[in-house]
Design brief:
- The protein is α/β, with parallel strands linked by helices.
- The chain has a single domain, classed as Rossmann fold, CATH 3.40.50.
- Helices cover about 25% and strands about 15% of the residues.
- The chain is built from 7 helices and 8 strands.
- The longest helix has 14 residues.
- The radius of gyration is 17 Å and the shape is globular.
- The structure holds S-adenosylmethionine (SAM).
- S-adenosylmethionine binds next to strand 3 and helix 7.
Amino acid sequence: MRMRKKKHGDERRAALSHMLITADALTPGTARSHFADPTRPLMLEIGCGKGDFVIGMAKRHPEWNFLAMERVPDVILCAMEKCHEAFGGTAPDNVIFCIANANALTDFFAPGEIDGIYLNFSDPWPKSGHEKRRLTYGSFLADYRTVMAAGRPLTFKTDNRGLFDYSLLSLEANGWKCEDVTYDLHASRWNAENIVTEYERNFSEKGFSINRVVAYAPAENPAELPKIVMPDTDSVGDDGKTENH
Ligand SMILES: C[S@@+](CC[C@H](N)C(=O)[O-])C[C@H]1O[C@@H](n2cnc3c(N)ncnc32)[C@H](O)[C@@H]1O
């Protein structure tokens, strides 16, 4: 996510440090200890952006803990400030933000430590040469499977049809069971329970329909990463964005 540098970012993050951990604090088996009630199920959002989704989920599910991971410190600051305000100027006891890159999840979590993962409007990386950077590439799925138990859900939504089609192929080739697939979430029976993210609001206002899948982790990871064959969509930039991202 592109963002102008925040003024006094370090001081503002420090003021909300009770809601924030850095990657160093995440070692396998410790994530739950950062929450008031470590016995609750632990959900992970990867790339939380400015936080609308995790704030909505935390309000709806006070019985779950949410770890909102984001690699850009100024973006996470925005999410934290919004969250603090949304909970009346206090920190909810079921949300922790974490500045970290999700490309090292098995360094952060023990096998089976996470109960569910959310990917919302992940960067599409449309060039075929950048396939490995997509958050639904086989190596990421293998890490998700390792940090979650078999049968745990990965929920993925995006406006980007190319990324969605790729992701369905990748999930299925890696043994995940895809359910509740929709190519128009807002017109679907699941819309009433949907929590809209910042990107989702923006793209749907521009007329893009929203794709969504809930995929369940396989019994085990495949021995080798399967090859996914997709049409080349090299028409746009090499920074992970398409014309609408
Ligand atoms: C396109 S934005 C979507 C933001 C938000 N989820 C939404 O739907 O509005 C993708 C976000 O994911 C973050 N991100 C991308 N790759 C990441 C990674 N490997 N680890 C952590 N965050 C990542 C980016 O910094 C960006 O804020």
